[in-house]
Amino acid sequence: MSAIRRYMKVICAAAMGLALLAVCFAAGGQETASGVQLSSLMGVGALTAGCVASERREKKAKELQAARAPEGAARFADIAGAEEAVEEMRRLADCLRDPERYARAGAHLPRGVLLYGPPGTGKTLLARALAGEAGVAFLQANGSDFVQMYVGVGAKRVRELFKKAREHEKCVVFIDEIDALGKRRGGGEENAEREQTLNALLAEMCGFKQDGKLLVIGATNRPEVLDEALVRPGRFDRRIELGLPDLRAREQILIHHLSRAGADCGAGELPLLTAGFSGAGLESLVNEAAMLAAGENTRIQKEHLERAYLEVLAGKPRWDAKPQGAQLRRVAVHEAGHALACLRFLPEEPVLLASVIPSTKGAGGYVLRRPSEALPTRRSLLGALRAALAGRAAEELCFGAEELSAGAASDLKAAEQLVRRLALDYALEPGLGLMPGRKPDEAALCAILDREYAQALAYLRESRQSLESLSAALAEKGQMDLPAILAAI
Ligand code: ATP
Question: 200 CA distance to ligand 1 centroid (A)?
Fold first, then answer.
Protein backbone atom coordinates (compact mmCIF):
# COMPACT_ATOMS: atom_id res chain seq x y z
CA MET A 1 0.00 0.00 0.00
CA SER A 2 2.71 2.48 1.05
CA ALA A 3 4.79 1.55 -2.04
CA ILE A 4 1.86 2.41 -4.31
CA ARG A 5 1.42 5.72 -2.48
CA ARG A 6 5.12 6.47 -2.90
CA TYR A 7 5.02 5.87 -6.67
CA MET A 8 1.89 7.98 -7.00
CA LYS A 9 3.65 10.84 -5.26
CA VAL A 10 6.74 10.56 -7.47
CA ILE A 11 4.58 10.51 -10.59
CA CYS A 12 2.61 13.54 -9.37
CA ALA A 13 5.79 15.44 -8.65
CA ALA A 14 7.23 14.65 -12.07
CA ALA A 15 3.97 15.67 -13.76
CA MET A 16 3.95 18.97 -11.84
CA GLY A 17 7.53 19.64 -12.87
CA LEU A 18 6.76 18.94 -16.55
CA ALA A 19 3.69 21.16 -16.37
CA LEU A 20 5.81 23.97 -14.96
CA LEU A 21 8.33 23.49 -17.77
CA ALA A 22 5.56 23.68 -20.36
CA VAL A 23 4.20 26.92 -18.84
CA CYS A 24 7.67 28.47 -18.84
CA PHE A 25 8.38 27.57 -22.46
CA ALA A 26 5.05 28.89 -23.55
CA ALA A 27 5.36 32.16 -21.68
CA GLY A 28 9.06 33.02 -21.76
CA GLY A 29 10.57 32.09 -25.13
CA GLN A 30 14.06 30.80 -25.75
CA GLU A 31 16.21 33.35 -23.88
CA THR A 32 14.41 33.39 -20.63
CA ALA A 33 13.45 29.79 -20.85
CA SER A 34 16.90 28.49 -20.08
CA GLY A 35 17.02 30.06 -16.62
CA VAL A 36 13.49 29.10 -15.70
CA GLN A 37 13.95 25.76 -17.41
CA LEU A 38 16.89 25.03 -15.21
CA SER A 39 15.07 25.87 -12.04
CA SER A 40 12.04 23.92 -13.21
CA LEU A 41 14.14 20.90 -13.97
CA MET A 42 15.75 21.27 -10.61
CA GLY A 43 12.24 21.53 -9.21
CA VAL A 44 11.31 18.18 -10.68
CA GLY A 45 14.37 16.55 -9.22
CA ALA A 46 14.00 18.28 -5.88
CA LEU A 47 10.31 17.49 -5.65
CA THR A 48 10.91 13.87 -6.56
CA ALA A 49 13.77 13.56 -4.10
CA GLY A 50 11.77 15.61 -1.60
CA CYS A 51 8.85 13.19 -1.83
CA VAL A 52 11.07 10.21 -1.20
CA ALA A 53 12.84 12.05 1.61
CA SER A 54 9.58 13.19 3.16
CA GLU A 55 8.32 9.63 2.87
CA ARG A 56 11.41 8.48 4.69
CA ARG A 57 11.00 11.23 7.27
CA GLU A 58 7.36 10.24 7.77
CA LYS A 59 8.38 6.64 8.32
CA LYS A 60 11.10 7.66 10.73
CA ALA A 61 8.72 10.00 12.58
CA LYS A 62 6.20 7.17 12.89
CA GLU A 63 8.87 4.89 14.30
CA LEU A 64 10.00 7.56 16.70
CA GLN A 65 6.45 8.37 17.72
CA ALA A 66 5.87 4.76 18.64
CA ALA A 67 8.85 4.89 20.95
CA ARG A 68 8.51 8.44 22.17
CA ALA A 69 6.71 9.55 25.31
CA PRO A 70 3.31 11.10 24.50
CA GLU A 71 2.78 14.82 23.99
CA GLY A 72 2.86 16.77 27.23
CA ALA A 73 5.09 14.17 28.86
CA ALA A 74 6.44 15.05 32.30
CA ARG A 75 9.83 16.67 32.66
CA PHE A 76 12.37 16.91 35.45
CA ALA A 77 11.42 20.59 35.67
CA ASP A 78 8.02 19.44 36.99
CA ILE A 79 9.70 18.12 40.13
CA ALA A 80 10.76 20.57 42.79
CA GLY A 81 12.87 20.13 45.89
CA ALA A 82 14.20 16.65 45.09
CA GLU A 83 17.55 17.50 43.51
CA GLU A 84 19.44 14.34 44.49
CA ALA A 85 16.76 12.01 43.17
CA VAL A 86 16.40 14.05 39.97
CA GLU A 87 20.17 14.04 39.48
CA GLU A 88 20.28 10.24 39.64
CA MET A 89 17.35 9.95 37.27
CA ARG A 90 18.92 12.48 34.90
CA ARG A 91 21.91 10.18 34.51
CA LEU A 92 19.61 7.24 33.78
CA ALA A 93 17.71 9.32 31.21
CA ASP A 94 21.02 10.23 29.58
CA CYS A 95 22.00 6.57 29.48
CA LEU A 96 18.64 5.63 27.92
CA ARG A 97 19.10 8.33 25.29
CA ASP A 98 22.65 7.44 24.40
CA PRO A 99 23.52 3.92 25.62
CA GLU A 100 26.39 3.60 23.12
CA ARG A 101 28.36 6.39 24.82
CA TYR A 102 27.96 4.61 28.15
CA ALA A 103 28.84 1.27 26.56
CA ARG A 104 32.10 2.77 25.22
CA ALA A 105 33.01 3.60 28.80
CA GLY A 106 32.06 0.07 29.88
CA ALA A 107 28.85 1.17 31.63
CA HIS A 108 25.33 -0.06 31.01
CA LEU A 109 21.84 0.95 32.07
CA PRO A 110 20.69 -0.91 35.19
CA ARG A 111 17.73 -3.21 34.62
CA GLY A 112 15.69 -2.03 37.55
CA VAL A 113 15.40 1.03 39.76
CA LEU A 114 13.44 1.08 42.98
CA LEU A 115 11.88 4.37 44.04
CA TYR A 116 10.76 4.30 47.63
CA GLY A 117 9.24 6.72 50.08
CA PRO A 118 5.93 7.78 51.60
CA PRO A 119 2.84 8.24 49.44
CA GLY A 120 2.64 11.38 47.34
CA THR A 121 6.36 12.16 47.32
CA GLY A 122 6.60 12.17 43.53
CA LYS A 123 7.71 8.62 42.66
CA THR A 124 5.30 8.26 39.74
CA LEU A 125 6.02 11.78 38.56
CA LEU A 126 9.77 11.14 38.62
CA ALA A 127 9.42 7.93 36.62
CA ARG A 128 7.22 9.69 34.05
CA ALA A 129 9.70 12.55 33.86
CA LEU A 130 12.55 10.13 33.19
CA ALA A 131 10.67 8.68 30.21
CA GLY A 132 9.72 12.19 29.07
CA GLU A 133 13.29 13.45 29.22
CA ALA A 134 14.69 10.40 27.47
CA GLY A 135 11.93 10.61 24.86
CA VAL A 136 10.95 6.99 25.26
CA ALA A 137 7.66 5.16 25.74
CA PHE A 138 6.23 4.84 29.24
CA LEU A 139 4.19 1.85 30.34
CA GLN A 140 2.58 1.98 33.76
CA ALA A 141 1.13 -0.88 35.79
CA ASN A 142 0.16 -1.36 39.40
CA GLY A 143 1.45 -4.24 41.50
CA SER A 144 -2.12 -5.11 42.48
CA ASP A 145 -3.03 -5.64 38.78
CA PHE A 146 -0.93 -8.80 38.96
CA VAL A 147 -2.43 -10.16 42.15
CA GLN A 148 -5.05 -12.57 40.87
CA MET A 149 -7.15 -15.40 42.20
CA TYR A 150 -6.35 -17.97 39.53
CA VAL A 151 -2.92 -19.49 39.37
CA GLY A 152 -0.97 -18.29 36.35
CA VAL A 153 -3.06 -15.21 35.52
CA GLY A 154 -0.75 -12.76 37.31
CA ALA A 155 2.32 -14.36 35.71
CA LYS A 156 0.71 -14.11 32.28
CA ARG A 157 0.04 -10.42 32.85
CA VAL A 158 3.67 -9.86 33.81
CA ARG A 159 4.81 -11.54 30.59
CA GLU A 160 2.34 -9.50 28.55
CA LEU A 161 3.59 -6.26 30.09
CA PHE A 162 7.19 -7.01 29.14
CA LYS A 163 6.13 -8.18 25.68
CA LYS A 164 4.38 -4.86 25.14
CA ALA A 165 7.46 -3.03 26.39
CA ARG A 166 9.68 -4.87 23.91
CA GLU A 167 7.42 -3.76 21.06
CA HIS A 168 8.73 -0.25 21.61
CA GLU A 169 12.16 0.71 20.47
CA LYS A 170 12.91 2.02 23.96
CA CYS A 171 10.68 1.91 26.97
CA VAL A 172 10.38 2.65 30.67
CA VAL A 173 8.13 0.19 32.51
CA PHE A 174 6.81 1.59 35.77
CA ILE A 175 5.30 -0.78 38.35
CA ASP A 176 3.68 1.18 41.16
CA GLU A 177 3.13 -0.51 44.53
CA ILE A 178 5.49 -3.25 43.52
CA ASP A 179 5.26 -4.70 47.02
CA ALA A 180 1.79 -6.03 46.11
CA LEU A 181 3.47 -8.63 43.90
CA GLY A 182 7.01 -8.56 45.18
CA LYS A 183 6.45 -9.29 48.86
CA ARG A 184 9.04 -11.45 50.57
CA ARG A 185 8.28 -15.15 50.27
CA GLY A 186 8.32 -17.46 53.24
CA GLY A 187 6.58 -17.49 56.60
CA GLY A 188 3.91 -19.85 55.20
CA GLU A 189 1.87 -16.96 53.80
CA GLU A 190 2.62 -17.41 50.17
CA ASN A 191 0.25 -18.99 47.75
CA ALA A 192 0.96 -20.58 44.40
CA GLU A 193 -0.43 -17.65 42.40
CA ARG A 194 1.64 -15.02 44.18
CA GLU A 195 4.78 -17.15 43.86
CA GLN A 196 4.27 -17.72 40.14
CA THR A 197 3.70 -14.03 39.52
CA LEU A 198 6.83 -13.07 41.40
CA ASN A 199 8.82 -15.75 39.58
CA ALA A 200 7.57 -14.42 36.25
CA LEU A 201 8.76 -10.93 37.19
CA LEU A 202 12.14 -12.27 38.33
CA ALA A 203 12.50 -14.18 35.05
CA GLU A 204 11.55 -11.15 32.95
CA MET A 205 13.97 -8.95 34.86
CA CYS A 206 16.82 -11.30 34.02
CA GLY A 207 15.58 -12.03 30.55
CA PHE A 208 16.31 -8.81 28.74
CA LYS A 209 19.62 -7.54 27.47
CA GLN A 210 21.12 -4.54 29.19
CA ASP A 211 21.45 -2.66 25.93
CA GLY A 212 19.89 0.56 27.14
CA LYS A 213 16.48 -0.08 25.62
CA LEU A 214 14.40 -1.08 28.59
CA LEU A 215 14.37 0.21 32.13
CA VAL A 216 12.01 -1.13 34.81
CA ILE A 217 11.12 1.19 37.67
CA GLY A 218 9.36 -0.13 40.74
CA ALA A 219 7.83 2.11 43.39
CA THR A 220 6.89 1.26 46.93
CA ASN A 221 6.17 2.80 50.30
CA ARG A 222 7.52 -0.33 51.99
CA PRO A 223 10.89 -1.38 50.56
CA GLU A 224 11.56 -3.53 53.61
CA VAL A 225 8.89 -6.08 52.67
CA LEU A 226 10.29 -6.83 49.19
CA ASP A 227 11.66 -10.27 48.39
CA GLU A 228 15.43 -10.36 48.44
CA ALA A 229 15.55 -11.94 45.01
CA LEU A 230 13.82 -8.89 43.60
CA VAL A 231 16.33 -6.40 44.97
CA ARG A 232 19.46 -8.42 44.36
CA PRO A 233 22.12 -7.06 41.97
CA GLY A 234 20.92 -7.26 38.38
CA ARG A 235 17.27 -6.66 39.24
CA PHE A 236 15.99 -3.69 41.29
CA ASP A 237 19.45 -2.96 42.61
CA ARG A 238 19.40 0.82 42.22
CA ARG A 239 17.46 2.41 45.07
CA ILE A 240 16.40 6.03 45.12
CA GLU A 241 14.66 7.45 48.16
CA LEU A 242 12.00 10.13 47.99
CA GLY A 243 11.32 11.27 51.53
CA LEU A 244 8.84 13.81 52.83
CA PRO A 245 10.09 17.24 51.77
CA ASP A 246 12.02 19.33 54.30
CA LEU A 247 11.45 23.05 54.83
CA ARG A 248 13.46 24.16 51.78
CA ALA A 249 11.95 21.50 49.54
CA ARG A 250 8.43 22.42 50.69
CA GLU A 251 9.11 26.02 49.79
CA GLN A 252 10.32 25.01 46.33
CA ILE A 253 7.36 22.71 45.71
CA LEU A 254 4.89 25.38 46.84
CA ILE A 255 6.55 28.04 44.67
CA HIS A 256 6.50 25.61 41.73
CA HIS A 257 2.78 24.90 42.03
CA LEU A 258 1.91 28.53 42.85
CA SER A 259 3.70 29.76 39.76
CA ARG A 260 1.98 27.10 37.63
CA ALA A 261 -1.33 28.33 39.02
CA GLY A 262 -0.34 31.94 38.17
CA ALA A 263 -0.72 32.98 41.82
CA ASP A 264 -0.43 36.61 42.86
CA CYS A 265 1.54 35.77 46.01
CA GLY A 266 4.49 33.76 47.27
CA ALA A 267 4.49 30.83 49.67
CA GLY A 268 4.77 33.12 52.74
CA GLU A 269 4.67 31.19 56.01
CA LEU A 270 3.29 28.03 54.41
CA PRO A 271 6.59 26.10 54.19
CA LEU A 272 6.87 26.45 57.98
CA LEU A 273 3.28 25.42 58.53
CA THR A 274 3.34 22.34 56.35
CA ALA A 275 5.86 20.06 58.09
CA GLY A 276 4.80 16.49 57.33
CA PHE A 277 3.05 17.39 54.05
CA SER A 278 4.05 15.40 50.96
CA GLY A 279 4.51 16.98 47.53
CA ALA A 280 1.02 15.75 46.63
CA GLY A 281 -0.35 17.32 49.82
CA LEU A 282 1.26 20.64 48.93
CA GLU A 283 -0.08 20.47 45.40
CA SER A 284 -3.60 19.80 46.64
CA LEU A 285 -3.26 22.70 49.10
CA VAL A 286 -2.41 25.06 46.24
CA ASN A 287 -5.28 23.58 44.24
CA GLU A 288 -7.65 24.20 47.14
CA ALA A 289 -6.49 27.84 47.24
CA ALA A 290 -7.00 28.06 43.47
CA MET A 291 -10.57 26.78 43.87
CA LEU A 292 -11.25 29.48 46.44
CA ALA A 293 -9.68 32.10 44.16
CA ALA A 294 -11.69 30.88 41.18
CA GLY A 295 -14.86 31.20 43.27
CA GLU A 296 -14.02 34.90 43.61
CA ASN A 297 -12.93 35.17 39.99
CA THR A 298 -9.40 36.15 40.90
CA ARG A 299 -5.92 34.62 41.16
CA ILE A 300 -4.57 32.99 44.32
CA GLN A 301 -3.82 35.56 47.04
CA LYS A 302 -2.35 35.11 50.51
CA GLU A 303 -5.75 34.82 52.21
CA HIS A 304 -6.80 32.00 49.85
CA LEU A 305 -3.71 30.08 50.89
CA GLU A 306 -4.44 30.69 54.57
CA ARG A 307 -8.04 29.56 54.21
CA ALA A 308 -7.06 26.57 52.12
CA TYR A 309 -4.48 25.54 54.74
CA LEU A 310 -7.08 25.61 57.52
CA GLU A 311 -9.59 23.77 55.37
CA VAL A 312 -7.11 21.06 54.41
CA LEU A 313 -6.17 20.47 58.04
CA ALA A 314 -9.45 20.96 59.85
CA GLY A 315 -12.15 21.07 57.19
CA LYS A 316 -14.46 23.97 56.39
CA PRO A 317 -16.04 25.66 59.42
CA ARG A 318 -19.80 25.07 59.64
CA TRP A 319 -20.78 28.40 61.13
CA ASP A 320 -24.46 27.56 60.90
CA ALA A 321 -23.85 24.58 63.20
CA LYS A 322 -22.24 26.66 65.97
CA PRO A 323 -23.34 25.14 69.30
CA GLN A 324 -25.44 27.20 71.66
CA GLY A 325 -25.94 27.61 75.42
CA ALA A 326 -24.45 24.97 77.72
CA GLN A 327 -23.02 22.98 74.82
CA LEU A 328 -21.18 26.07 73.53
CA ARG A 329 -19.71 26.73 76.98
CA ARG A 330 -18.58 23.13 77.30
CA VAL A 331 -16.81 23.12 73.92
CA ALA A 332 -15.25 26.52 74.66
CA VAL A 333 -13.92 25.37 78.05
CA HIS A 334 -12.54 22.18 76.48
CA GLU A 335 -10.73 24.01 73.65
CA ALA A 336 -9.51 26.79 75.94
CA GLY A 337 -7.94 24.08 78.15
CA HIS A 338 -6.10 22.63 75.12
CA ALA A 339 -4.96 26.08 73.98
CA LEU A 340 -3.59 27.11 77.40
CA ALA A 341 -1.73 23.82 77.88
CA CYS A 342 -0.21 24.13 74.37
CA LEU A 343 1.04 27.63 75.16
CA ARG A 344 2.51 26.51 78.48
CA PHE A 345 3.92 23.06 77.71
CA LEU A 346 4.59 23.04 73.99
CA PRO A 347 6.20 26.35 73.04
CA GLU A 348 7.83 24.82 69.93
CA GLU A 349 4.40 24.30 68.39
CA PRO A 350 2.67 27.69 68.64
CA VAL A 351 -1.11 27.75 68.54
CA LEU A 352 -2.44 28.90 65.16
CA LEU A 353 -6.15 28.79 65.77
CA ALA A 354 -8.65 27.73 68.43
CA SER A 355 -12.16 27.03 67.21
CA VAL A 356 -15.51 26.01 68.70
CA ILE A 357 -17.14 25.87 65.26
CA PRO A 358 -17.82 22.33 64.03
CA SER A 359 -15.92 21.51 60.87
CA THR A 360 -16.80 19.51 57.78
CA LYS A 361 -14.15 16.99 58.90
CA GLY A 362 -16.30 16.11 61.89
CA ALA A 363 -14.47 17.99 64.65
CA GLY A 364 -16.72 19.68 67.22
CA GLY A 365 -13.95 22.14 68.05
CA TYR A 366 -10.19 22.11 67.72
CA VAL A 367 -6.89 23.80 68.44
CA LEU A 368 -4.46 23.90 65.53
CA ARG A 369 -0.75 24.12 66.23
CA ARG A 370 2.16 24.85 63.96
CA PRO A 371 3.96 21.51 63.60
CA SER A 372 7.56 21.31 64.67
CA GLU A 373 10.24 19.70 62.57
CA ALA A 374 12.60 19.04 65.47
CA LEU A 375 13.13 15.49 66.66
CA PRO A 376 10.73 14.78 69.51
CA THR A 377 12.26 14.93 72.98
CA ARG A 378 10.93 13.66 76.28
CA ARG A 379 9.92 17.22 77.15
CA SER A 380 8.09 17.85 73.87
CA LEU A 381 6.29 14.50 74.04
CA LEU A 382 5.20 15.14 77.61
CA GLY A 383 4.10 18.63 76.54
CA ALA A 384 2.01 17.15 73.71
CA LEU A 385 0.58 14.60 76.16
CA ARG A 386 -0.49 17.30 78.64
CA ALA A 387 -1.93 19.40 75.81
CA ALA A 388 -3.96 16.40 74.62
CA LEU A 389 -5.29 15.72 78.13
CA ALA A 390 -5.97 19.36 79.00
CA GLY A 391 -9.40 19.50 77.32
CA ARG A 392 -10.73 16.90 79.71
CA ALA A 393 -8.87 18.48 82.64
CA ALA A 394 -10.52 21.86 81.87
CA GLU A 395 -13.96 20.20 81.80
CA GLU A 396 -13.28 18.54 85.15
CA LEU A 397 -12.24 21.84 86.70
CA CYS A 398 -15.21 23.83 85.41
CA PHE A 399 -18.01 21.24 85.60
CA GLY A 400 -16.79 18.65 88.13
CA ALA A 401 -15.86 14.98 87.67
CA GLU A 402 -19.52 13.90 87.53
CA GLU A 403 -20.20 16.17 84.57
CA LEU A 404 -17.27 15.10 82.39
CA SER A 405 -18.40 14.46 78.83
CA ALA A 406 -17.46 11.95 76.15
CA GLY A 407 -15.93 14.81 74.16
CA ALA A 408 -12.39 13.80 75.10
CA ALA A 409 -12.53 10.33 73.49
CA SER A 410 -10.30 11.17 70.53
CA ASP A 411 -7.92 13.13 72.82
CA LEU A 412 -7.51 10.02 74.94
CA LYS A 413 -6.69 7.93 71.88
CA ALA A 414 -4.08 10.49 70.84
CA ALA A 415 -2.67 10.49 74.39
CA GLU A 416 -2.42 6.71 74.36
CA GLN A 417 -0.40 6.77 71.14
CA LEU A 418 1.87 9.47 72.52
CA VAL A 419 2.56 7.54 75.69
CA ARG A 420 3.41 4.39 73.70
CA ARG A 421 5.82 6.32 71.51
CA LEU A 422 7.40 7.99 74.53
CA ALA A 423 7.83 4.88 76.64
CA LEU A 424 8.12 2.06 74.09
CA ASP A 425 9.27 3.34 70.69
CA TYR A 426 11.71 5.96 71.98
CA ALA A 427 12.47 4.49 75.42
CA LEU A 428 12.30 7.96 76.95
CA GLU A 429 10.61 7.06 80.21
CA PRO A 430 13.08 6.42 83.05
CA GLY A 431 12.67 3.09 84.72
CA LEU A 432 11.00 1.39 81.74
CA GLY A 433 14.19 0.22 80.07
CA LEU A 434 15.68 0.69 76.64
CA MET A 435 14.33 -2.31 74.78
CA PRO A 436 12.14 -1.04 71.94
CA GLY A 437 9.20 -3.13 70.76
CA ARG A 438 8.97 -5.12 73.99
CA LYS A 439 5.60 -6.11 75.39
CA PRO A 440 4.17 -2.98 76.97
CA ASP A 441 3.67 -2.83 80.69
CA GLU A 442 0.13 -1.46 80.52
CA ALA A 443 0.05 -0.50 84.20
CA ALA A 444 3.20 1.60 83.77
CA LEU A 445 1.70 3.32 80.71
CA CYS A 446 -1.51 4.06 82.64
CA ALA A 447 0.56 5.55 85.46
CA ILE A 448 2.28 7.92 83.01
CA LEU A 449 -1.09 9.04 81.63
CA ASP A 450 -2.46 9.65 85.16
CA ARG A 451 0.66 11.55 86.15
CA GLU A 452 0.52 13.84 83.11
CA TYR A 453 -3.20 14.38 83.49
CA ALA A 454 -2.56 15.55 87.04
CA GLN A 455 0.06 17.99 85.70
CA ALA A 456 -2.38 19.44 83.17
CA LEU A 457 -5.09 19.73 85.81
CA ALA A 458 -2.73 21.47 88.26
CA TYR A 459 -1.63 23.99 85.65
CA LEU A 460 -5.20 24.84 84.62
CA ARG A 461 -6.21 25.17 88.28
CA GLU A 462 -3.43 27.76 88.66
CA SER A 463 -4.60 29.49 85.46
CA ARG A 464 -8.31 29.33 86.23
CA GLN A 465 -8.78 33.01 85.49
CA SER A 466 -7.21 32.70 82.03
CA LEU A 467 -9.27 29.57 81.39
CA GLU A 468 -12.50 31.44 82.15
CA SER A 469 -11.66 34.52 80.10
CA LEU A 470 -10.39 32.56 77.12
CA SER A 471 -13.38 30.22 77.07
CA ALA A 472 -15.79 33.19 77.28
CA ALA A 473 -14.04 34.95 74.38
CA LEU A 474 -13.96 31.75 72.34
CA ALA A 475 -17.68 31.14 72.92
CA GLU A 476 -18.39 34.66 71.71
CA LYS A 477 -16.07 34.77 68.70
CA GLY A 478 -16.16 31.16 67.54
CA GLN A 479 -12.54 31.16 66.31
CA MET A 480 -9.43 32.92 67.63
CA ASP A 481 -5.89 33.16 66.25
CA LEU A 482 -2.80 33.43 68.45
CA PRO A 483 -2.76 37.24 68.91
CA ALA A 484 -6.46 37.17 69.90
CA ILE A 485 -5.82 34.30 72.34
CA LEU A 486 -2.88 36.11 73.93
CA ALA A 487 -4.95 39.27 74.26
CA ALA A 488 -7.76 37.36 75.98
CA ILE A 489 -5.72 35.65 78.73
P1 ATP B 1 2.10 7.01 45.73
O2 ATP B 1 3.17 6.37 46.57
O3 ATP B 1 0.84 7.27 46.53
O4 ATP B 1 1.84 6.32 44.43
P5 ATP B 1 3.84 8.95 44.50
O6 ATP B 1 5.04 9.03 45.36
O7 ATP B 1 3.91 8.14 43.26
O8 ATP B 1 2.58 8.51 45.37
P9 ATP B 1 3.04 11.04 42.75
O10 ATP B 1 1.80 10.34 42.28
O11 ATP B 1 4.18 11.07 41.84
O12 ATP B 1 3.44 10.46 44.16
O13 ATP B 1 2.70 12.53 43.16
C14 ATP B 1 1.38 13.06 43.05
C15 ATP B 1 1.46 14.52 42.66
O16 ATP B 1 2.07 15.28 43.71
C17 ATP B 1 2.33 14.77 41.45
O18 ATP B 1 1.64 14.60 40.27
C19 ATP B 1 2.77 16.20 41.65
O20 ATP B 1 1.80 17.09 41.18
C21 ATP B 1 2.83 16.34 43.17
N22 ATP B 1 4.21 16.21 43.64
C23 ATP B 1 4.72 15.24 44.41
N24 ATP B 1 6.02 15.46 44.66
C25 ATP B 1 6.35 16.61 44.01
C26 ATP B 1 7.54 17.37 43.86
N27 ATP B 1 8.68 16.99 44.44
N28 ATP B 1 7.51 18.49 43.11
C29 ATP B 1 6.36 18.88 42.52
N30 ATP B 1 5.20 18.22 42.63
C31 ATP B 1 5.19 17.09 43.36
Answer: 29
